[in-house]
Amino acid sequence: MASKEEYMLQRDGEESKRLNAQHSFMLALSSSHLTHPSIPLEGICAVADVAAGTGIWLRQLAASPAFAGRPDGKRTTFVGFDISSQQFPFAEELPPNVCFKIQDFLEPFPVEYHETFDVVNVRLLSYVIRALDLEKIVQNILQILRPGGFLQWQECDAGDSWTKPETPMATATINYVVSEKAARGLLQG
């Protein structure tokens, strides 16, 4: 995102509820897997969530049994990045191994995060980026992935969206998302 103004939705309590509901929907689509089943979670030392929003994905992963304790006695570190802190959970609500940082993914990440994360999660960025920025964003995200680490990136194609029953509100929402993606150069044709 080049600027905070490019986010097509609000940054308020209602948007936080929508993001959390969207997370529940994505979780249902993935059979309740927070990470792809092919990603081995044993030995994972650090996890990043880029465009973390409310941090619900990161917080649920940190609380999952897979990260209850590592054989070496250390705790896995979880870091959420977003361009705005407005939807971050309060720091006092977080365990000591979970934190959130402000980061514009159009800019390189600070060097202390380079090659740090075993897993980097990215979800639904196509709704907030421009096609001409995609290569730069991917390069910046890959900077923080350790060699041999896992990049988990989930997207949806709003052009293939439909609802039953078809309602005026649902149709208007889908049309709005499609038009916003087209304006950002993210739809073919």
Molecular structure report:
- There is one protein chain.
- The protein has a five-stranded parallel β-sheet.
- The longest helix is centred in the first third of the chain and has 17 residues.
- The chain starts with 12 loop residues before the first helix and ends in a 6-residue tail after the last helix.
- It is 28% helix and 17% strand.
- It is of the alpha/beta class.
- The chain has four helices and five strands, in the order αβαβββαβα.
Quick tags:
189 residues, alpha/beta, five-stranded parallel beta sheet, 4 helices, 5 strands, 17% strand, globular, disordered N terminus
Cα gyration radius (Å):
17 Å
Average pLDDT for all residues:
82
The count of strands amounts to 5
Which spans have pLDDT < 50 for at least 5 consecutive residues? 1-5
Trace the largest sheet across and list its strands.
Answer: 3-2-1-4-5
Helix content bin:
25-40%
Query: Describe the biggest sheet?
Result: 5 strands, parallel
- Quickly count the helices: 4
> What structural class do helix, strand and pairing data support?
alpha/beta
